[in-house]
Amino acid sequence: MKKLLSGNEALALGAYHAGIKVAAAYPGTPSTEILENLAGCDGVYAEWSTNEKVAMEVALGACYTGVRAMASMKHVGLNVAGDPFMAAASTGVDGGLVVVSADDPGMHSSQNEQDNRHYARLAKIPLLEPGDSQEAYDIMSHAFDISEEFDTPVMVRTTTRVAHSKSVVEATGSRKEFKKQPDFCYNPTKYIMLPAHGRMRHPLMEERLGKLAAYADSFPLNQIVIGDRRLGIVSSGVAYQYARQVFPEASFLKLTLSYPLPPELLKRFAATVDRLLVIEELDPFLEENIRILGLEVTGKKIFPITGELSPDVIQQAAVKAGLLAAPARKKTQAAPQLPGRPPLLCPGCPHSGIYFVLSSLGQRSSLPGKPKRPPKLIITGDIGCYTLGANPPLSALDTCACMGAGIGQALGMKRAGLAEKVIAVIGDSTFLHSGITGLVNAVYNQGQITIIILDNRTTAMTGHQEHPGTGVTAQGQETTAVDLAQLARSIGAEDVKVIDAFDIKALRAGVKDSLDNPQLSVIIVRGNCAVRLPKRSHPRVIDQDKCNKCGLCLLIGCPAIRKEDESISIDITLCAGDACGICQQVCPQQAIAPSGDEVKK
Amino acid sequence: MDKLDLLITGIGGQGIIAASDIVAQAALVSGYDVKKTDSLGMAQRGGSVVSHIRLAPKVWSPLVKTGEADVMLALEKLEAARWSRYLKPGGVAIVNNLAIPPLAVSLGGAVYPQDEEITNIIKQHTDRLYVTDGSRLAAELGNARALNSLMLGCLSVFTPFAEDTLKECIAQRLPAKVVELNLAAFDCGRQQIEAVVNIGKD
Q: B4-196, what's its fold?
């Protein structure tokens, strides 16, 4: 039966049909839904791991027992998982091991657009790239088969446009059942990576790569499509879909197993066309590897190396290079600058109050018309919904490098001799992911910093996944919840406060107190994510007679508070009401009060 | 018409993803190849959202090319202006008469364009602009959140498959308790457009 599936749903279904037994992941856009879909499948153990490194290790251990296993993550997650990932490439597998890397060209929701195909080459393992949901489904059974046949982890690389687009899938298979019980075979030279054993594995990896290249030549999803022989286009992933649309007449070599490259197939294709062109997103990965085969090829001279491709981008580049005639189109005036609509912290967000306090205590934002003053506080941060606090009007972040980075950065700044107070903010899920080691380090090295854990009781940005602090597993089972305050104290932090995220007075007093403490301090700011509010009651309203239009409430950055035609009002359909009340607490005129109407969500 | 390139745009939380899922499902059951993609960014709520849907006997790219969309449904006016460059000459723009000012406007850093300016931007790409008071009509029917179904009713005048297919897909996708309201909104939207469009011309 034909169904509409997203790329991530199709990968999960493909893995399920391929007989996957263990799946591990840490949420990360655009990879999250792969594990979410597997979590609901019978006969599959699926877990949210504390981070990608652990997820990789769980999957690796599982495959050592002969079952099929998968770790899925976003592209930067593979940086975190890099160590076990490289080790897996050395040891090889027993049961099939697939690593899904979901890249994000165009940085729809990431801090960079690194091209993770390089990781396949670095690790000397095969790389498969689906271009739509059908291919995502089809690829999975091949991925596990290749893994077992060649004793190697297999990397499946998707991109946002594959992972999150929906297209038609004809799921031809059904779940493959393996009768064999999990069994770990003692094999020290394979599984214990001592230098002596590693030296034995390396030549085997090189040999494996050679065999894989020969296999790629006959891999059924690497296909030549003969059209006009004047132009031969090599492409993979979603770039192939775009290229087929823009060049309907050309000849194509579609690569699905794109590393190692199929040398004979490429040479045969190059010989049948006049000119060889590569269309690929981000780095010249295929292009450079094709050039190494001694073939003449053009790619990044024509098509951009930065950003996401699209049919528009490919067409414009091709027109500029003289490959296509310019389309006849009516000239339109240059589009006027329209106001942007960037993502915001939601109405009722538990991060708004603490950011408002940090912003005002640190002199980081000012009322409209008031002069800007030099900031008194440095705030290091990292990845999560709370990164949005960097935007005006809160402007409450100075750094965002990667998951967990803020704590180490804060310590580094203080140890460098920075005079200002430094605060590191980090989410609950991110703290468990990679903040704990930073806190251990800061306690051990006696950092004079304040660490604020923004505890909204979920992994919010990726769509509300459970984590070790929530007490619920990926498959909905109740489990031990890690107590963040107890954890911080057990590490050795003495000044640990837990403060209600919606109590502005307590937040202000708590932050001031911690900043005055010459020792390391930890503040856990706790409040449920607004998206999960069960009920919204008593939305706040502004008494226009009392309001003197000072604009202080606008500095919260709440999307429900608007200024139109010189009057400030609250959109009651957006306001979180009693669950929040931050604006009511900050208004110097006491002009904001609960409305009488109960508005239910 | 054996293909449709469609854009649905508006603000996060207006039900755009649900609407585009419904159109894609209707295309699938009508025997088309179909691909859809939503640009979400980091937005959970309140950000600009645009969904591309392409259906034809065979679809390659999920992204519509600039200047090639047959129809654009805009659930908010500023977003209509922002994405109208995707419309082909003579394409159909159906715009909900609703302004939601972005935060930058509230903070005084930007100005929300006047209706005339928005109309001028869209009319650079097409003359077939239909404005509907969808939010108000949906609210009158019972809930402004049925706006997305009302807009699908507007769209149904231009789809290459039967309106009943769309209605069946709405009924399958939405929770049972809101189906009746959403189907009423759908009919209301369709009537709006039928009143101004000579369907035979398409």
A: Pyruvate-ferredoxin Oxidoreductase; domain 3 (3.40.920)
